[in-house]
Design a protein that fits this description.
Layout lengths: L1 E2 L2 H23 L4 E7 L3 H17 L2 E7 L5 H13 L5 E4 L10 H6 L11 H9 L3 H6 L6 H12 L8 E5 L6 H10 L3 E5 L6 H5 L4 E4 L17 E4 L3 E2 L5 E2 L4 H4 L5 E2 L6 H20 L3
Parallel strand pairs: 1-11, 2-3, 2-4, 5-6, 5-7, 7-8, 8-11
Antiparallel strand pairs: 9-10
Helix pairs in contact: 1-11, 2-11, 7-8, 7-11
The chain binds NADP nicotinamide-adenine-dinucleotide phosphate.
NADP nicotinamide-adenine-dinucleotide phosphate binds next to α11.
Length: 291
């Protein structure tokens, strides 16, 4: 087994991003700005937003934190988003999800200006991802793509794992992970199969994968008999178990003697998600400055 170390790759990309911010601030006398919006007091969401703000500091991105009470209405959230859309110091807007009290975020997400949508969740950016024909177009157009899926691509590229022509099986079809990661794999010329809860003969399908991406949210679901010898396994899952530890969607202990490349949980995809948020904020800044 070879571990794909997301923490190390992420640190190396963050160093590059820090250098990029320095270079951009010399050119424009400005630094990129990220506005975070946290509605309510959910402890996990507070930790996530805190990590994002800290990561911004690390690379020199200016952050603007906007806490709102759990009682904030959709109109109040949208009103704040519109102010941030109009603020020239803000290049990216991150609305921390989920919203409290089971509020659906769609209208709020749709009110974020697509060119500040650093989470890549606005229908314009999600739609653009299905229209591009290649990875080169994604890079050249500085497309804002959902952070976790983008992190998966960078993990593979930094680990020198070829995607072109490979059989990629994606477990999960969510708008946040499964669908965008499938589109990114397609743009990188993989042959992509998307599996979900109604897929039949799942193991037969995953066994054909050169690259298996698990994003289903079920701890230790993927066992040895899902995986082909020599495959690369990207475990997106983050599942908190009764013992309070984090587990991926892959049963890491059960597969660790296999001849595979694999991302651990924690320390695999997770650190890349925030790194890609920084990356997207810098892309948004470059676009706003016509760079
Ligand atoms: P989600 O919206 O709940 O989607 C789960 C997907 O998995 C659905 O498409 C579902 O199929 C499919 N699925 C569920 N059970 C299945 C089964 N038994 N066999 C095959 N497919 C099955 O979850 P998500 O937002 O995509 O997140 C997935 C996991 O990634 C979670 O553990 C989440 O915490 C983690 N995550 C991690 C990061 C990170 O930074 N590392 C970021 C985002 C998410 P149906 O569509 O048929 O229901």
């Amino acid at each position: 087994m070879k571990i794909i170390n997301g923490k190390e790759i992420s640190q190396s990309i963050r160093q590059d991003l820090k250098n990029k911010v320095e270079e951009l601030s010399k050119k424009t006398s400005r630094v990129p700005g990220l506005a975070t919006i946290l509605v309510g007091e959910d402890p996990a969401s507070k930790v996530y937003v805190g990590s994002k703000i800290k990561a911004c500091e690390q690379v020199g991105i200016k952050s603007f934190h906007n806490p709102l009470p759990a009682t904030a209405t959709q109109e109040e959230i949208i009103d704040l988003i519109q102010k941030l859309n109009a603020n020239p110091e803000v290049d990216g807007i991150l609305l921390q999800l989920p919203l409290p009290n089971g509020q659906t975020p769609d209208k709020c997400i749709n009110s974020i200006s697509p060119d500040k949508d650093v989470d890549g969740l606005h229908p314009f950016n999600a739609g653009m991802l299905t229209l591009v024909k290649s990875w080169k177009e994604i890079v050249d157009q500085k497309l804002l793509v959902s952070c976790t899926p983008m992190g998966v691509v960078y993990l593979l590229k930094y680990s020198n794992i070829d995607i072109q022509g490979k059989n990629v099986v994606v477990l999960g079809r969510s708008n946040l992970v499964g669908k965008p990661v499938s589109m990114l794999m397609l743009a990188n010329n993989a042959t992509v199969t998307i599996a979900h809860s109604r897929t039949q003969n799942l193991k037969e399908i995953t066994k054909k994968a050169d690259i298996l991406i698990a994003a289903i949210g079920k701890a230790k679901f993927v066992t040895k008999d899902f995986i082909k010898d020599g495959a690369t396994v990207i475990d997106v899952g983050i599942n908190r178990a009764a013992d309070k530890k984090l587990y991926g969607d892959v049963d890491f202990e059960a597969v660790k003697d296999m001849n595979i490349n694999i991302t651990p949980v924690p320390g695999g995809v997770g650190p890349m998600t925030i790194t890609m948020l920084l990356h997207n904020t810098i892309l948004a800044f470059e676009r706003h400055n016509n760079l």
